[in-house]
């Protein structure tokens, strides 16, 4: 699951445009149940409305509003609105844009949510080179993809419920998959008795296909699902199941240049500095444990090939932006795992790494 954005109910309401809040509440309450002139009201009045309603309904509303607030991460609703040519109003803050999308443009909101789920996730992203630049996204393809996922999840005890949304752009294909996880039980009060309720939590997977690079980036909640996603995507959206079997499919990163060219890691263009923050070395002798090096001032000469194979590296780049330095820290785990693509200035750093032979695609 993605991490939650900072949440303060009153701050959200003040930022979200009161007439939009009123429109949202009218989904659940008759107008006469709301205090008059909600548009000019203090957030305390909205809290008063919620405090005097059913606990279940209050939880639904709070969950909705928190989800809308979460989606505001890095102004993603504004970016989504711009992509879909949704009108933006100068007075609206990001929270107001997100609430407007939630109310009036649910598909656009779900696109913003997909990007939030992708960029704010704690999970690393896997990347896979699938060679084809053209994709097909007709209704039959999407239906077949959903059907394959439903069968896969049902066969693994996670229920057959599955929702797939596809956003096809000239430069990329974005797919949001929402599905069940393994059933869980939770004790609940039923009058004066404690009962056990069974439910399937919703998990989310996000696939983003870079058509120019022919690289699929996958954020999946369960590592074992990754292979199924890659195979289904290759077969259906690219029309060639054999692409998933190519031996170079997962060959995205190599860390050899960090070990063999320790003096290369200097500033270039917008990249001001490059620091090694952590390294995991696998000794070449059998039965030896992986060695971890980390800390300030860790120099690239410390990861000489003679000490073993570098199997993971945490790097910190300083990027010059509008005359100011911004630090970006990320991890690469060859052949295909990283959290770089969730970070700011990922394109700048990727160009640098590609030029140094670390990023292969």
What can you tell me about this protein's structure?
Helix content is about 30%, strand content about 25%. It is an alpha+beta fold and about 350 residues long. The longest helix has 17 residues, at about 140-155. The radius of gyration is 24 Å and the shape is globular.
Order of helices and strands: HHHHHHHEHEEEEEEHHEEEEEH
Strand order, sheet with most strands: 2-3-6-7-1-12-11-10-8-9
| CA-based gyration radius | 24 Å
Instruction: Please bin the fraction of helical residues.
Output: 25-40%
Judging from the principal axes of the Cα atoms, what is the shape?
Answer: globular
Structural class: alpha+beta
Mean pLDDT: 91
Number of strands: 12
Quickly count the helices. 11
How large is the share of residues in beta strands? 15-25%
The assembly state of the depicted protein chains is: single chain
Termini separation comes to 28 Å
Low-pLDDT residue spans: none
Major sheet characteristics: 10 strands, antiparallel
What would a concise description of this structure say?
The chain has 361 residues and is of the alpha+beta class. The chain has helices at residues 9-15, 18-25, 43-51, 55-70, 76-83, 94-104, 106-119, 139-155, 226-236, 256-260, 346-355; strands at 125-129, 162-168, 172-180, 184-190, 193-199, 202-210, 215-219, 271-282, 291-294, 309-321, 324-333, 337-338.
Topology:
Blueprint: H1 9-15, H2 18-25, H3 43-51, H4 55-70, H5 76-83, H6 94-104, H7 106-119, E1 125-129, H8 139-155, E2 162-168, E3 172-180, E4 184-190, E5 193-199, E6 202-210, E7 215-219, H9 226-236, H10 256-260, E8 271-282, E9 291-294, E10 309-321, E11 324-333, E12 337-338, H11 346-355
Antiparallel strand pairs: 1-7, 1-12, 2-3, 3-6, 4-5, 6-7, 8-9, 8-10, 10-11, 11-12
Helix pairs in contact: 2-6, 5-6, 5-7, 6-7, 8-9
